[in-house]
Specification:
2 domains; rod-shaped; coiled coil
């Protein structure tokens, strides 16, 4: 039974998305879980070793019981041999009785003694058989218990082997996952190094551009504005319109002073009746004035500093 699983495709994809402290915490957590599996396997191994020693003691004890049963069998075989000898002696006694009636009394005595000894041997043999039967019964029970214990130990050993194999496979998957995560982190760091170099170059370029704009760029833009033909025309129209309006005001004042000699202000030489409209138009044009030359500056937004400096040295193109 597997105690810990890691390294699936979903988890691998999940770790690939991690970075920084989050990825480090995930790696440390997986390492701690792998260490707990090793501790659990060691505890189970110690328990299995203790059970093996206990069963070895039980097997040794049963082996001693086997020696007792073997010794009992030997004694039983010896008694059986004695019975056979007594039977031979009884047979010989019968032969002696037939051969000589004179030794009948002695033969009877020998027979009676042999029969008595045979009865004693039968009693001993019965006791030994009962003892052997009891030993065999106890041995069968002990063997049954030992077999049951052995089966339990074997099953536990197989479970322990399976758990160990599962933990080893989980450990291998964890190591592979950690190695893949470390490789991803290395690739990410390598990619970040390249991006940092690129960003450093962009920052350096921006700093140089800022320095140039503050020292020379603004002056160049002002120069463009001052040299714009459109600005010159708008200012000239504004000045001319202001002058015309001023002249009209002067003429009106003069008209009031010389009213007796002229019937209308239009009859006065130099009076411009549309000067006010021209001034309003000039003011509106100045308010809405757009310096198209500045568009040349916005076109250089994405250009490097070297191109901007080169453009600033070129003469300003005359506008249509």
């Amino acid at each position: 039974m597997s105690l810990f699983h890691i390294g699936t495709l979903a988890e691998h994809a999940y770790y690939r998305k991690m970075s920084g402290p989050k990825l480090g915490n995930a790696l440390m957590l997986n390492q701690a879980q792998s260490n707990s599996l090793v501790v659990e396997a060691y505890k189970r191994w110690v328990m299995a070793e203790s059970n093996c020693r206990r069963y070895e003691c039980e097997v040794a004890f049963l082996k001693n019981k086997e020696n007792v049963r073997s010794k009992t069998k030997q004694e039983l075989s010896s008694l059986r041999a004695q019975v056979d000898r007594l039977r031979e002696q009884a047979s010989e006694a019968k032969k002696v009785s037939k051969a000589s009636q004179a030794s009948a009394a002695a033969t009877y005595e020998v027979r009676d003694k042999a029969i008595h000894d045979l009865e004693d041997l039968k009693l001993k043999f019965g006791a030994l058989e009962r003892k052997l039967s009891e030993v065999e019964e106890r041995n069968k029970l002990e063997q049954k218990e030992m077999q049951s214990s052995y089966d339990q130990l074997l099953a536990y050993h197989l479970r322990l082997v399976n758990d160990t194999n599962e933990m080893e496979r989980a450990r291998d998957k964890s190591v592979e996952s950690h190695q893949a995560a470390i490789a991803d982190v290395k690739d990410m760091l390598t990619r970040y190094d390249g991006e940092m170099i690129e960003l450093y170059g962009l920052v350096s370029e921006l700093l140089l551009t800022k320095e140039w704009f503050l020292t020379e760029g603004i002056a160049w833009v002002v120069k463009l504005v001052h040299q714009s033909p459109k600005l010159e025309r708008v200012v000239a129209d504004l000045v001319n319109s202001v002058n015309a309006v001023g002249v009209n005001d002067d003429i009106k004042q003069g008209f009031h002073a010389a009213k007796s000699s002229a019937k209308t202000v239009n009859e006065i030489l130099g009076y411009d009746e549309g000067a006010k409209d021209s001034l309003d138009a000039a003011i509106k044009a100045f308010d809405n004035f757009h310096i198209s030359v500045l568009d040349k500056v916005t076109e250089l937004v994405n250009e490097p500093l070297s191109v901007i400096k080169e453009k600033s040295k070129l003469p300003i193109v005359k506008e249509d």
